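Hi there,

I know you've been waiting on this one. I reran it after we fixed the sequence typo, so this is the corrected version. Both the input and the resulting structure follow.
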Amino acid sequence: MIIGVGNDLAEVERLRMALEHPQTGARLRDRVFTPEEQVYCEQRGRAKYQSYAARFAAKEATMKALGRGWGQYVGWREIEVVRRRGARPQIVLHGKAAVYAASLGIQRFHLALTHTATLAMAYVIAEGEGKEGNEGQKT
């Protein structure tokens, strides 16, 4: 059963400017992206900001699928985009985000990412059994 869906579109140049900002860029990178995500993106060479933007969009889309923004139930680094060699990217939740998703009955996420030189898009479907009383819940 589909419990939630979310999508997001991120501008590559806007994220590049934010991450390269001399005073706040490093703090933003560490606040939003896990160390593993940072390593993956930095290894992408000239396309690294496209990868950062795709991961940012995936985190936003996951929050929408959960029906929550970042805060009490979901933190930025608790949503991780993992891409193993030869496999498609996947959403992995940690900490309070994983607990919250489990409370909704979410068992897995489906993730689609795409990007160009200027835009990155993510689409997320949260799937599971659902919990009593959550069916039809508006998000």
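Quick highlight: The beta strands are 2-11, 79-82, 90-93, 106-115, 119-128.

Best,
R. S.
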